[in-house]
């Protein structure tokens, strides 16, 4: 009798969580390998400089900390059009020193704290990306950029 009571309360709490409004990112095609609990999936966090992150999948490996070298796979899109301007999704990946000024500020802020195996959406406003100059011809001036990042390695 106790088990059905526990299952009943679990199901009713799941139903309540499903009634929460969907985030603007919940309609994207990204399919996580291991879904996060409903209350954590696609939950947005606003960080310094207006960088917005949402974890698609939380990794279980080493943590990306300032000063460490990290290797990522990524897809970069313009928020305004959804057009892919850059990607690296196989092979050696892209390696850089975290928070050493080697990449745009939005990456230094948005990738910190990820764990190897994790996937995260990182939204970089212009001041945390390429700013008023952009990066012609792919990235127009004052562009907000959206990255799907997978952390592959930390050392």
TrEMBL record:
UniProt keyword annotations, A-Z: Isomerase, Rotamase
Positions of the UniProt region annotated as Disordered: 1-49
UniProt GO molecular function: peptidyl-prolyl cis-trans isomerase activity
CC annotations in GO: chromatin; nucleolus
Domain PPIase FKBP-type residues, every copy: 67-155
Pfam family, one: FKBP_C
Protein name: peptidylprolyl isomerase
Native species: Schizaphis graminum (Green bug aphid)
Gene transcribed to yield this protein: FKBP46_0
